[in-house]
Write a structure and sequence with these properties.
Blueprint lengths: L1 H34 L2 H8 L3 H7 L3 H21 L8 H21 L1 H13 L1 H27 L10 H20 L7 H16 L2
Helix pairs in contact: 1-2, 1-4, 1-6, 2-3, 4-5, 4-7, 5-8, 5-9, 6-7, 7-8, 8-9
């Protein structure tokens, strides 16, 4: 009997958590990060105000980070793909493909990224999470730069891999936001081709 009650409570809890996240996602997109409140989320999800904090003690920041986590994981999967550096030509093809996929995700998740862009400027917790995401991304790109240097494929043997990786990431990030915020009418493939050519031709011999 006790086991059945615990199962029912668990199911109710999972149902409430799902309703909170689904309701919050809609509200964040409609009203933005700043204007969305826990009271609004609770009302839309038809749950008690305290219940929202029971599931998400960190309030709307924790709710938003839970929602955006899957989006950021998709972005990181691009950098985390297995790739062994063998030649300049191969690196160019992979780099261009990765940038294209990066920008396609910016189009796919345009509404969510618009809220993220706002939230980064308003919440130190969300900004910290974004900085950690950037750090992981740059570390992964740095590994490829190190490979190229170790194989004698680069223009200079004393490049700093982290700095070189940062050049690619931060330039790509700038255009990711431009695409997500609809601040450019350039085709994502044109952007990807230009960035990849600039990066690879600057790095490789």
């Amino acid at each position: 009997m006790t086991h059945n009650l615990e199962d029912k409570r668990k199911v109710r809890g999972e149902h409430s958590r799902t309703k909170i996240l689904e309701s919050a996602k809609k509200l964040f997109i409609e009203f933005g990060f700043k204007e969305t409140t826990i009271a609004m989320v609770s009302k839309k999800a038809s749950i008690g105000y305290g219940t929202a904090y029971t599931h998400f003690p960190g309030g709307k920041e924790e709710i938003f980070l839970t929602i955006i986590k899957e989006v950021l994981e998709e972005f990181y999967q691009i950098a985390n793909g297995e790739f062994t550096v063998n030649s300049k030509e191969e690196s160019l093809a992979v780099t261009q493909r990765n940038i294209e996929n990066f920008l396609k995700l910016a189009i796919k998740y345009q509404l969510a990224l618009k809220v993220l862009h706002e939230a980064i400027g308003l919440s130190h917790i969300i900004n910290e999470n974004w900085q950690n995401f950037i750090k992981k991304f740059i570390e992964r790109i740095s590994d490829n730069v190190k490979q190229a240097m170790e194989k004698g494929l680069t223009r200079h043997k004393d490049f700093d891999p982290e700095v070189v990786a940062g050049v690619l990431f931060y330039t790509g990030e700038k255009y990711m936001w431009k695409v997500a915020l609809k601040q450019t009418d350039k085709d994502y493939r044109v952007i990807a081709s230009s960035l990849a050519q600039m990066y690879v031709n600057g790095l490789y011999r």
